[in-house]
Write a structure and sequence with these properties.
The chain has 135 residues and is of the alpha/beta class. The protein folds into two domains: 45 residues, no CATH class; 71 residues, no CATH class. It contains four helices and three strands. A three-stranded parallel beta sheet has the order 1-2-3, with helices on both faces. Strand 1, helix 3 and strand 2 form a beta-alpha-beta unit. The protein is globular, with a radius of gyration of 18 Å.
Length: 135
């Protein structure tokens, strides 16, 4: 998976070290993130333009949704992106309601966790292990 994402990132105009989840996965040794070690069939050098990535989503204030992302981990390509995709579906496709907080990632300070709107949704093992008992 890391190799596939590394090649895909290059095709889209990004180096592996620009993509947080690929850098983390490569450093953890869970896959190959070195293009020189990946057998690529075809010529990916033909892809030149850098495809813009998704910007941080801003949800309407009246929905009162707070997303708290850890400073060490919370990749837009990983758990944070999954949260945003879920919210897009709930809020825009299914006419959902707000008034909750989502916590994702790792590396939180006490100030990050002040004034959280209940209910609180904790996404994944990282925040559960770090702050689950606090929340």
């Amino acid at each position: 998976m890391v190799a596939v994402d590394t090649v895909g990132a290059k095709i889209l105009g990004y180096d592996r070290n620009e993509i947080k989840h690929l850098t983390i996965a490569t450093e953890m040794g869970v896959g190959c993130g070195n293009l020189d070690e990946i057998e690529i069939v075809g010529n990916i050098k033909q892809f030149k333009p850098r495809v813009p990535h998704a910007k941080e989503r801003i949800y309407p204030p009246e929905l009162n949704i707070k997303i708290v992302a850890g400073k060490e981990m919370a990749c837009r390509e990983g758990c944070l992106g999954q949260v945003e995709s879920m919210l897009d579906t709930l809020l825009f496709d299914a006419n959902g309601q707000g008034n909750f907080t989502i916590v994702a990632g790792k590396g939180f300070s006490k100030s990050d966790l002040k004034d959280l709107q209940e209910p609180i949704v904790v996404v994944g093992d990282c925040p559960t292990e770090e702050i689950g008992s606090y929340v």
